Amino acid sequence: MRRKLSCFLLTVLILTTGANQLCSQETGKTISSSQVRNIVDNVNGPDSRLVSGTLYRGARQGSVAGHPYFFDEEYKPGYVIIDSLIFDNLLLKYDILENKLVLNTSGSGNSDFLVCLDLQKTERFGMAGHNFIPFPAGKDSTSRWFAESVVEDTLSYLVLKKKELKIDNGAVDFNYKTNDTPFILFNNELHKFNNRRTLFRLFPDLKDELKRFIRQENFVFINKRPENLTRLINYCNTLLKNTQ
């Protein structure tokens, strides 16, 4: 019990002193993970770990098919913005079953040290060329999920992806089911992007132009092709700017 308490107090000390040092940096300045570790080293002595939250125990083990991550089981190069500071050159993956952004940074002995970053303080993050922003779920939401920001413009296009464990009656006991939900954000109002009619309803004056574009581009099964949705949203933004 005393050993656990000592480890807890050490973690609190690292978090407190490290945070004070980081907040003294110039707002908006890019800081690499190596620089962050150097700051922690200077305050607490040699320490190669970026301690920013709780430890990550990993995905569920056992008779489970699949994984709980946004992309795959590999860590991706990325960045995180916390308190207007950009932490770059990080290795990240996003657990969308438990809603945990996991940072992999080397610990003592060059072993992996996995930390769940504090999503309540995270402003945005990116991995493998994809950007993620807080999902505007409203004031009543108890958790802070992040959606992939596909288009950020007058009309924005977001995709909220979550996973859940489902009982499998086959060779394994459980498998991961992925739920992808597209949304559009306009004038700070969020709308579920069900199909092209969502745009027709929001922009009745642009309906004919949008229909013409869909026919010209031969968008078949538009809801099944994310790249077509992106092109349609970009075209709608062009029309909106031309009408201003």
Explain how this protein is built.
This protein has 2 domains: 2-193, no CATH class; 194-244, no CATH class. The protein contains 5 helices and 13 strands. It has helices at 2-23, 33-44, 196-202, 207-216, 226-242; strands at residues 30-32, 53-55, 64-65, 76-82, 85-95, 100-106, 112-117, 122-127, 130-134, 146-151, 155-167, 174-186, 189-192. Strands 1, 2, 3, 4, 5, 6, 7, 8, 9, 10, 11, 12 and 13 form a 13-stranded mixed β-sheet that branches. The radius of gyration is 22 Å and the shape is globular. Residues 1-28 and 43-51 have low confidence and may be disordered.
In short:
The protein has 244 residues and is an alpha+beta fold. Helices cover 28% and strands 35% of the residues.
SS-based class: alpha+beta
Distance between the termini: 66 Å
The number of domains is: 2
Largest sheet: 13 strands, mixed
Number of helices: 5
Helix content: 25-40%
- Poorly predicted runs of 5 or more residues: 1-28, 43-51
Task: Please provide the count of β strands.
Answer: 13
Strand content: 35-45%
Look at the structure and give the mean pLDDT.
76
What gyration radius follows from the Cα positions, in whole Å? 22 Å
Characterize the overall form: globular
Sequence of secondary-structure elements: HEHEEEEEEEEEEEEHHH
